[in-house]
């Protein structure tokens, strides 16, 4: 049966409107900013206190990863940058410690 010939079926030609842009959650915004700042502080502490710097980088990486659960916005991009900043420092420490241990074992 064709619905175009049935008078009881209403024909509508409404176009769906795009959803309004979602705003970042204030708590996640604070978590994102804290994670990014901790990543920068970890890089600043790198030469003075490597163990403290590694711990601060780990916390910054976790906080920035939590901040990535936001809708697409500038804060989400900052959270992704915070994860990269902290994770790169942790990878550098991991390679450095592994390299030192390999050289000592020779």
Describe this structure in words.
The protein is mainly alpha-helical. It has one domain. The longest helix is centred in the last third of the chain and has 32 residues. Helix 1 packs parallel to helix 3 and helix 2 runs antiparallel to helix 3.
Summarize the structure.
By secondary structure, the protein is mostly helical. It has helices at 26-45, 50-67, 74-105.
Main β-sheet: number of strands, strand sense, barrel status? Answer: none
Provide the residue-averaged pLDDT.
84
Report the radius of gyration as a whole number of Å: 25 Å
DSSP E strands, number: 0
General shape? elongated
How much helicity do the residues have? 55-70%
Helix-strand category: mainly alpha
Chain-wise SSE layout:
Elements: H1 26-45, H2 50-67, H3 74-105
Helix pairs in contact: 1-2, 1-3, 2-3
Key words describing this protein structure:
106 residues; mainly alpha
């Amino acid at each position: 049966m064709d619905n175009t010939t049935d008078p009881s079926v209403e024909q509508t030609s409404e176009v769906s409107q795009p959803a309004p842009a979602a705003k970042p959650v204030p708590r996640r915004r604070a978590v994102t900013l804290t994670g990014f700042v901790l990543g920068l502080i970890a890089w600043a502490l790198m030469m003075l206190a490597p163990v403290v710097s590694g711990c601060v980088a780990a916390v910054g990486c976790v906080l920035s990863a939590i901040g990535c659960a936001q809708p697409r916005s500038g804060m989400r991009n900052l959270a992704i940058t915070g994860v990269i900043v902290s994770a790169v420092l942790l990878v550098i420490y991991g390679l450095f410690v592994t390299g030192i241990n390999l050289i000592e074992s020779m």
